[in-house]
Amino acid sequence: MSLDVAYSIEIDDFIDPDKAYELYWSGMLEDKRAFLCPGTNCSANVTCANLDKDTSSLKVVPHFRVFGSHTKGCEVSRNVPLKLQYAEPTTQTATHKTLDTSIVDTFLEKRPESYYDHYKTNSRAKNAKVRMVNILKSKAERQLKEIGVTSSIYSVRTVVSRYARYKKDGTLELRRLNIAGKDKPYTSLFSKIENQIVSDLPQMPSIYHGWAFINRLPSGHGYQIKFKKKLKGNSRTKEFTTTVMIGDRLIEHYKMKKLVAKRIEKLYKSPNPTAYVFIYGTPRVNERNDRYANIDITNLDMIDICLEDPWAK
Question: How far is CA 172 from the centre of its chain?
Fold first, then answer.
């Protein structure tokens, strides 16, 4: 059975690798080895590989790895589906389906205000090595199947990571993502910036991607991301440079600022300040300067900056 979920000793809850990564870089997890097997009463130790790595390369994907011995009768060691009680902060009220009837993840454009508060409440002694799961009425029962667990996604970074993971395990064609109430295949979510006509682009946001230059803004108070490839106007001779502005204040107020600040500063100061960028939004032609098509973001969860093209052959 694939270990899609592990029990975190530090926050007293079951979480997946993507959530573990976000909590680590927001300062709520400290030890990548402070996990246990999710099997009933199993004490096998688990590590979250790459938890402390800057995953600007999709070759570095966080994942759980068992490095201890399973307790006799553990469901995981016997490939038996688990039923766990665990909490996930969410604004949704719809019942989550299990993977035997649905394999749809849900992408939400904004985290609930209480997203991190739940884990602060659950924090306890960092050196504890025993399972102390509180079975609360508010916790939903989920059945974990061999191919994974459905969950809410709050960042483009996680969507890109899931895409890579599903492609590797052979389930990509089966996977869908619910955005604004509509289910879309993972394979249809991405649009490479490469000579498309702006007026032909979908009005609904998509995940646009491509190579881009990383520069400081002339004001010195943020960064400009400028895609190398152009978008086109209706005349075909008209071209638009696609740009994204990231202010220093936006970085400062982001929960995972140490990850974003470290990555973007490293790229900017490199001899070749370019990155492969994914961004969720819609290009809009700048009314004051029609040489540009801007993608505006107010939340750094909506962008992922990578060192390499993850789909390069």
Answer: 16
pLDDT tens-digit map of 105-136: 889 888 877 777 766 655 554 444 444 444 33
- Under the banding of pLDDT at 50, 70 and 90, the label for residue 227 is very high
Give the tokens for residue 133.
Answer: 């799961």
| Sequence spans of domains, the chain | 6-124+133-188, 190-306
DSSP H or E segment with residue 247: strand 239-247
The residue-averaged pLDDT of 273-301 equals 90
In this structure, of 29-38, 49-58, 139-148, the range with the lowest mean pLDDT score is 139-148
| CA dist., res. 142 & res. 153, Å (int) | 17
Cβ neighbours of residue 76 closer than 8 Å, sequence gap 6 or more: 1, 3, 37, 38, 39, 42, 44, 66, 70, 82
| 18, 20, 26, 29: CA torsion to nearest 10 | -170
Q: Residues 272-277: what's their mean pLDDT?
A: 94
What is the CATH architecture of 190-306? Answer: Beta Barrel (2.40)
Within 59-183, where are the H helices? 115-122, 156-169
Q: Are 214 and 225 in contact (CB under 8 A)?
A: yes
3-state secondary structure of 17: helix
Residue reference for tokens 């079951």: 14
pLDDT range class, residue 103, cuts 50, 70, 90: low
Q: How far is CA 153 from CA 82, 107, 217, 223, in A?
A: 22, 5, 30, 26
Q: Which two tokens stand for residue 186?
A: 């993972």
